TrEMBL record:
Belongs to the homogentisate dioxygenase family. Pathway: Amino-acid degradation; L-phenylalanine degradation; acetoacetate and fumarate from L-phenylalanine: step 4/6. It catalyses: homogentisate + O2 = 4-maleylacetoacetate + H(+). This is Homogentisate 1,2-dioxygenase. Residues 284-437 form the Homogentisate 1,2-dioxygenase C-terminal domain. Its EC number is 1.13.11.5. The lineage of its organism: Eukaryota, Viridiplantae, Streptophyta, Embryophyta, Tracheophyta. It is an enzyme of class 1 (oxidoreductase). Homogentisate binds at residues 353, 374.
Length: 452
């Protein structure tokens, strides 16, 4: 692993048209698909959008590889089947539930478990078949994928490691992703995951029929939030030689299929294009916050968004709650009590979340669905209002929480609702909220009497 890290290089930028060669001269000049490619390579295009998508949205890359990816045996249903992955949400695999839900961190298993076997769906909405929707998964694993690669034909994966680094080999190169960083593997790319630290746990958001993009900044201006130059794409790297019985695991319609081939899929010597895996360090995010009164809406902390056709409405937003200064005057500084037309799935990478004093742990999760009330727990509320005369500016440190927010109403998988890690007492964190109502300081001329 040390030698691999020493060779690791990235290309900065978001949405750029990149070019990368592991061997100088491997990229064709002046055209994409010459009669004979340099070094005897095969030209292969991977399209992330339809051919006729508007140019500003069109995504594709050209890969120049030792053997084309079509060189494999027929796909067969994976044995054993993976029964906890969903890409079409209906009553057969999930239920609706408006209750506030919270899960404690799931333990990493003791038995050998790689990323594929350790991945499971928690909730989601829509359908990969209809190219509209999302799924939220979690994973626990303790070993790398050996002689196998995974390909998600259903949608894009957004990885949020919580414990343990993730080493991702892709057809475009390699990414090392640590807790506090994220990675996006677009639909269709083959990748393999190794675990340098042994055990690993984290979250994965999946979107169907869309790709992530940077949010518009509006009145913020030209700078702020996630800077394009801080996103990192891999550089070309390849494997050659025979790899007997190498397995491609393909997720297709939420089911897993396998195909055998005798070479590594990471045999791309050069590539160019704008459809590419990438990573981002959340610590480089430039947050914006209120500087006078009131608590700002969480949308101001959006890192990436997958929009719908309706302006301002997201299929899925990825929002973070990073370290930052809290300075608002005469203001309840934690997040406000809320009912939202969007649905909010939250996770915690490390530290504590400012609205929950207890129970919301790193590696855990919560789900507050459409119009389900939520907000600070009793302890947080009482401690905050007790500081009414001591509201000096202070810096929130040592924390990194995040939210996947969607306009779609999620269905929750049966196994997630039956999980031993489901916190059945979550609602108790609000039961202690008491009435502080008093007429003493109220101008009663502005209150309509109920006495008739």
């Amino acid at each position: 692993m040390g030698e691999k890290l020493a060779d690791l290089q990235y290309q900065p930028g978001f949405g750029n048209h990149f070019s990368s060669e592991a061997i100088p001269g491997a990229l064709p000049r002046d055209q994409n698909s010459p009669l004979v490619c340099p070094l005897g390579l095969y030209a292969e295009q991977i399209s992330g959008t339809s051919f006729t998508s508007p140019r500003k949205l069109n995504q594709r890359s050209w890969l120049y590889r030792i053997k084309p990816s079509v060189t494999h045996e027929p796909f067969k249903p994976r044995v054993p089947a993976h029964t906890r992955l969903v890409s079409e949400f209906d009553a057969s695999n999930s239920r609706t539930n408006p209750t506030q839900l919270r899960w404690r961190p799931e333990d990493v298993p003791d038995s050998p478990t790689d990323f594929v076997d350790g991945l499971y769906t928690v909730c989601g909405a829509g359908s990969s078949f209809l190219r509209h929707g999302f799924a939220i998964h979690m994973y626990t694993a303790n070993k790398g994928m050996k002689d196998s690669a995974f390909c998600n034909a259903d949608g894009d994966f957004l990885f949020v490691p919580q414990a343990g680094r993730v080493w991702i080999e892709t057809e475009c190169g390699r990414l090392l992703v640590s807790p506090g960083e994220i990675a996006v593997i677009p639909q269709g790319f083959r990748f393999s995951i190794d675990l340098p630290d042994g055990k690993s746990r984290g979250y994965v958001a999946e979107i169907y029929g869309a790709h992530f993009q940077l949010p518009d900044l509006g009145p913020i201006g030209a700078n702020g939030l996630a800077a394009p130059r801080d996103f990192l794409a891999p550089t070309a790297w390849f494997e050659e030689g025979l790899r007997p019985d190498y397995t491609i695991v393909q997720k297709f319609g939420g089911e897993l299929f396998t195909a055998k081939q005798d070479f590594s899929p990471f045999n791309v010597v050069a590539w160019h294009g704008n459809y590419v895996p990438y990573k981002y360090d959340l610590h480089k995010f430039c947050p914006y916050n209120t500087v006078l009164v009131d608590h700002g809406d969480p949308s101001v902390n959006t890192v990436l968004t997958a929009p719908t056709d309706k302006p301002g409405v997201a299929l899925l937003d990825f929002v973070i709650f990073p370290p930052r200064w809290l300075v608002a005057e005469h203001t309840f500084r934690p997040p406000y009590y809320h009912r939202n037309c969007m649905s909010e799935f939250m996770g915690l990478i490390y530290g504590a979340y400012e609205a929950k004093a207890d129970g919301f742990l790193p590696g855990g999760a919560s789900l507050h669905s459409c119009m389900t009330p939520h907000g600070p727990d009793t302890t947080t509320y009482e401690a905050t209002i007790a500081r009414v005369n001591a509201m000096a500016p202070y810096k929130l440190t040592g924390t990194m929480a995040f939210m996947f927010e969607s306009a779609l109403i999620p269905r929750v998988c049966h196994w997630a609702l039956e999980s031993p890690f489901l916190d059945h007492d979550y609602y108790q964190c609000w039961i202690g909220l008491k009435s502080h109502f008093s007429r003493i300081a109220l101008d009663e001329t502005n209150v309509e009497s109920t006495d008739k």
